[in-house]
Amino acid sequence: MSDSKTIAGTVNTQTADSRYRVTLDLMEKIAFHEASSDRKKRDYWLKLYHQCHRATGGTAPADILKDD
How far apart are CA 12 and CA 41, in angstroms? Predict the structure, then answer.
């Protein structure tokens, strides 16, 4: 007897337009256009992701760039 709840193949539960996906895409685009040696440092990536996450949440641009 076949189990109707079985799924064959890969299942992706995140949509391409989720806030987290858009945040990651935005971060990658900004990093691509920035010519900075800081890109190799972990704090650069974490700060950039955090700023992008704020941007996708509707935070005002002036507030996004403020230091935490």
Answer: 30
What span, in angstroms and rounded, lies between the C-alpha atoms of 56 and 20?
Answer: 8
pTM of the model as a whole: 0.63
Query: Could you give the CA distance from residue 15 to residue 46 in angstroms, rounded to a whole number?
Result: 22
> What region does 9 belong to: left with phi over 0, alpha with psi -120 to 50, or beta?
left
pLDDT band at 13 (very low <50, low <70, confident <90, very high): low
Q: Distance (Å, rounded) from C-alpha 3 to C-alpha 60? A: 50
Measured CA distances, 38 to 14, 18, 23 (Å): 30, 28, 20
